[in-house]
Specification:
Helices cover 36% and strands 17% of the residues. The chain is built from nine helices and seven strands. The longest helix has 14 residues, at 5-18.
Length: 241
């Protein structure tokens, strides 16, 4: 399934008006350890030609900005769950309408894994994030980068991004893609085979707009040890049950 070009162009124009300040884009020969913003000419061209951008449109319509510096896993979960066909809870703020928010995400079962206060101070691990989304009805398959290879990640993620109804969540260390050091979660929006780059839809969009990063750099960013457990970060394949 390929997104209509008119839909892509319309969304890009909206992003250009609302995105945070961007780093200048380059040409298709992207240097290691760098990123190219979606709103740059090169970034726009990559999305327009991508055959692996099925997830971009649904995620764009449900995209949530994290409400605290450490709620990246929560904002990512909310974004993806609202794009899936799973039952949604009602947040009193929006009652009677059902919608996942960063407040109603913490039901009793999620709180048993990681409560709001600990998430606010320490975030979540890869497995905690996968379990939280599973509690809310999604099918989740976490992959620690240390257990696989770059080629496996590229194949799984690019196939997912070409197929409707499922998504890719990444847990990575920013410094490997040319950004200030810090662990982070976000969903992937697209893959460009011509440059072997993935589009990260950054849920901390007050810091960074969507950016294209090299597959090799992204895998290295995921293949870093979590500060809480003796395991690497990685990615989660998320789909309807």
């Amino acid at each position: 399934m390929t997104m209509p070009r008119t839909a892509v162009i319309a969304l890009i124009l909206v992003s250009a008006l609302t995105a945070a300040p961007t780093r200048a884009g380059g040409d298709s020969a992207q240097a290691p350890g760098t990123y190219i913003t979606l709103t740059s000419p090169e970034g726009t061209a990559r999305l327009a030609r991508s055959a692996h951008a099925t997830d971009y449109l649904p995620l764009s319509t449900t995209f949530a900005t994290q409400i605290t510096q450490t709620f990246c896993s929560v904002a990512t979960g909310v974004t993806v769950l609202n794009a899936l066909s799973v039952p949604r809870p009602v947040d009193p703020v929006y009652a009677p309408y059902a919608y996942f928010t960063q407040n109603n995400y913490f039901n009793d079962a999620v709180t048993a894994i990681r409560n709001r206060d600990l998430t606010r101070s320490d975030g979540m691990t890869l497995d905690m994030a996968a379990r939280a989304m599973r509690i809310h009805g999604a099918r989740t398959v976490p992959h620690h980068a240390e257990d696989g290879t770059l080629d496996e990640f590229r194949q799984r993620a690019s196939a997912n991004l070409k197929r409707p109804g499922d998504f890719v969540v990444i847990n990575y260390q920013r410094k490997f893609i040319g950004q200030p050091k810090g662990a982070h979660f976000s969903p992937l929006g697209a893959y460009d085979a011509a440059t072997d780059t993935f589009l990260i839809l950054d849920v901390a969009r007050y810091k960074f707009p969507p950016v294209w990063v090299r597959a090799e750099d992204l895998f290295a960013a995921m293949n870093t040890q979590d500060s809480e457990i003796a395991r690497s970060r990685g990615y989660i394949l998320v789909s309807n049950p």
